[in-house]
């Protein structure tokens, strides 16, 4: 475009920008191929009832095995998948894979647990999301109440009215709904009361600094008691140490997720963990 305006202006783009643009194009191209080539895979991270050590849920976390760049984490490519719309087919693949895996574990006789799947804003904005999910549940044979969807506050707040209607439809189907990264968004308390949700997930950022930062400790305590008041379940993310676990447990936060219990691991490793129990 710069060139069209002025024939001599091609250097308008710095070489650094050219590289960025090129990198982006390459990434987008290889992302398109990745779905066909089955270069995406899921890891699963346990969500633990710390009173009993039971695994109550597993969160599916997307990874991309890039042919040249190795394994890429979602923070590096989800934004581009969102911008290009590729998040729609990728997100469907995630939902389908996670639901089939959950059903497989159920058929192997493991204790009932939820499968938690992250949804991004663009996915959540699809008018027929409920139908897509209903079809995937039917196809996989997974009961709706075994599926939990994780959505951030900012995703809901992009379009609070229509998104609340979609949340209600999903909830009516029997699906469980969690607000992810809670505390980092900007939803007001009055909205929170009206969202038809089941769970708050306390963001890792607050949990991480509980020991050194009294403000963060206070915020976490407030979120836990707010969840209890609103009759919502609460899960703390990013629990890496035993003292953190003990602090949270003493404040009546029962469910936790984090490296203390397990990093996100492959389905095979989860099968072993389900057989032997968690050690932490
Ligand atoms: P999230 O949903 O908040 O997931 C939790 C993230 O925290 C994961 O990063 C997990 O690996 C990491 N984590 C868990 N426990 C600990 C801990 O104790 N310490 C530390 N330092 N980190 C911990 P991951 O897998 O890189 O995913 C990052 C984000 O990408 C997710 O945040 C989620 O927002 C998004 N994401 C992941 N999978 C999907 C997907 O299938 N679809 C969509 N739309 N987004 C996804
Ligand atoms: Mg999540
Ligand atoms: Mg989170
Ligand atoms: Mg996050």
TrEMBL record:
Designated name of the protein: EAL domain-containing protein
Part of the intact protein present: 426 to 705 of 705
Annotated EAL domain residues: 24-278
């Amino acid at each position: 475009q710069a060139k069209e305006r002025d024939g001599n202006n091609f250097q308008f783009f710095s070489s650094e920008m050219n590289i960025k643009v090129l990198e982006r194009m390459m990434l987008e191209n290889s992302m398109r191929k990745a779905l066909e080539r089955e270069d995406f895979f899921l890891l699963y991270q346990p969500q633990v009832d710390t009173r009993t050590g039971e695994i109550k849920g597993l969160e599916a976390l997307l990874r991309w095995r890039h042919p040249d760049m190795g394994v890429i984490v979602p923070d590096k490519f989800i934004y581009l998948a969102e911008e290009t719309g590729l998040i729609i087919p990728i997100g469907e693949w995630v939902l389908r894979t996670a639901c089939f895996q959950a059903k497989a574990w159920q058929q192997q006789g493991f204790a009932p647990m939820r499968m938690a799947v992250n949804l991004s804003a663009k996915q959540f904005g699809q008018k027929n999301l409920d139908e897509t999910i209903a079809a995937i549940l039917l196809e996989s044979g997974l009961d709706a109440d075994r599926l939990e969807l994780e959505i951030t506050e900012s995703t809901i707040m992009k379009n609070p009215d229509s998104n609340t209607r979609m949340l209600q439809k999903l909830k009516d189907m029997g699906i469980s709904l969690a607000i992810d990264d809670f505390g980092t968004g900007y939803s007001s308390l009055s909205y929170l009361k009206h969202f038809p949700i089941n769970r708050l997930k306390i963001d890792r950022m607050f949990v991480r600094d509980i020991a050194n930062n009294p403000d963060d400790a206070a915020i976490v305590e407030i979120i836990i008691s707010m969840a209890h008041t609103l009759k919502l379940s609460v899960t703390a993310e990013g629990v890496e140490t035993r003292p953190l676990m003990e602090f949270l447990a003493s404040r009546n936060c029962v469910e936790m997720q984090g490296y203390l219990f397990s990093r996100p691991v492959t389905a095979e490793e989860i099968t072993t963990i389900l057989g032997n129990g968690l050690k932490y």
